[in-house]
Amino acid sequence: MEVALFGPEYDAIAPEVIRAFEERQHLLPIVFTVEFFIFLTMFIIAKGRKQAKITRKSDKVRVYSVFQRVVILLNIVIMIYLFITGFSITFGNWTGGGELARLMRATHEVVGVGWIPVWAIMTIIAFKDHKFFVRPSSKIWNKIFLRGKYKHMDRINYYMYVAFGSTLVVSGFIIWWLFPDASTHAETIQLKRFILFFHFMGSAIISFFTLETVYSYFISVKGYIPGVITGKLPVEYLEQLRPDVLEEEDLRK
Fold it and tell me: Tens of pLDDT along 178-210?
């Protein structure tokens, strides 16, 4: 299929896919809303909500270093913003225009580029399958890498975060970097739209595993967020809910 809009003729990339997407775009909010509540119901039934019985509130140990807390909280805040602004773009024919929508869409790419180093650092420090790594100093090591061990589902969530996070990072950077000029306007726009499908796929898939991770750590277990903010968690909390963290030999020092 050849197109002659915005310049000389060029071959359109997957025109049937683009047309089908545009024709059904108004259904996306419904699909995502139904999907969200299905997943939420599954999580509530499967995981419920756990809470440790704390009798010694002052008996706490430092689990997260300042560096780890900054990275985790930055990752959380930026991902929330990217999800909100990304859905604002995807559901543009529902959300409409206005200054707020324009600002959200304009800042999505810039904030996304800022997320790249945060994602990369989070990927490194959250790699807990490092039992064969040589640790020159456990004190320094534990200030960089997160403590504890992954359960099977948590490990899958981590690998999906890395895999589809890289898809988002690479595709998002290319979309941000490419800028058409007078002679390549049409071709560049077509290429960006093509890459956007990979970006959309990555965001749709990573959202499920991110939601599962967020529910597992922040919602189903009461008391996790204060620990990330202060860096300390009650010993009884760790004994009952995260005993793998207590296995670290220098945790009480």
Answer: 877 666 667 777 788 788 888 887 887 777 777
Taking the C-alpha atoms of residue 166 and residue 170, their distance in angstroms, rounded to an integer, is 6
Helices (H), 128-184: 138-144, 152-177
Which CATH number is correct for 2-246, 1.10.8.60, 1.20.1260.10, 1.20.950.20, 2.60.120.460?
1.20.950.20
Cα end-to-end span (Å), the chain? 68
- Angstrom distance (rounded) from CA 186 to CA 7: 6
Q: Dihedral of the CA atoms 59, 60, 61, 64 (nearest 10)?
A: 180
**Which residues partner with 60 through β-bridges?**
234
Alpha-helix runs per DSSP H in the chain: 15-24, 28-47, 66-90, 92-95, 99-125, 138-144, 152-177, 185-214, 224-230, 235-241, 243-246
What are the tokens at 202? 């990555």
Spatial distance between the Cα atoms of 154 and 3, rounded to a whole number of angstroms: 47
Tell me phi and psi for residue 149, to 5 degrees: -130, 155
Are the CB atoms for 110 and 207 separated by under 8 Å?
Answer: no
Give the C-alpha distances (Å, rounded to integers) separating 29 from 24, 35, 75, 134, 214: 11, 10, 25, 48, 21
Tokens of 130: 């490092």
Does pTM top 0.90 for this prediction? no
- Residues 124-135 pLDDT 10s: 988 877 666 666
Sequence-distant (≥ 6) Cβ neighbours of residue 40 within 8 angstroms: 211, 215
For residues 235 and 252, what is the distance between their CA atoms, to the nearest angstrom?
9
